[in-house]
Amino acid sequence: MSKIAVPSQFDTTILAETFKLLGDPTRLRILFFCLEAPRSVGDIAATLDLSQSLVSHHLRLLRGARLVRGNRQAKQIFYELADKHVSDMLVDMAHHVCEDHGED
Question: Angle at Cα 83 formed by Cα 77 and Cα 87, nearest 5°?
Fold first, then answer.
């Protein structure tokens, strides 16, 4: 395992705010839905049974935290996870909560 530098106080605060954003189940559902392919707001809303305005609100927060990025194609914006760090973290944490921990 590689050694990681201890984040500065400022970076730790940013990291804590990012984890707070990830504490919302709707935002996690959006991130997991965008894990496999870029998705439009309408597609996210329809598939996850959410309003488009709610999806747009959550995407704005996720973009602000650099967890997703949007790519405009004609009149639509397609959202995808910002980078491999985000996708790896989501997949790793999903595996962690789903694995059998036995009698810890």
Answer: 100
Question: Which tokens sit at 13?
Answer: 């605060």
Helix runs in the chain, H state only: 9-22, 25-33, 41-48, 52-64, 84-98
What confidence tens digit (pLDDT) does each residue in 1-48 have? 567 888 899 999 999 999 999 999 999 999 999 999 999 999 999 999
* 3-class SS of residue 80: strand
Task: Spell out a b/e string for 11-20, using b for 16 or more CB atoms within 10 Å of the CB, else e.
Answer: eeeeeeebee
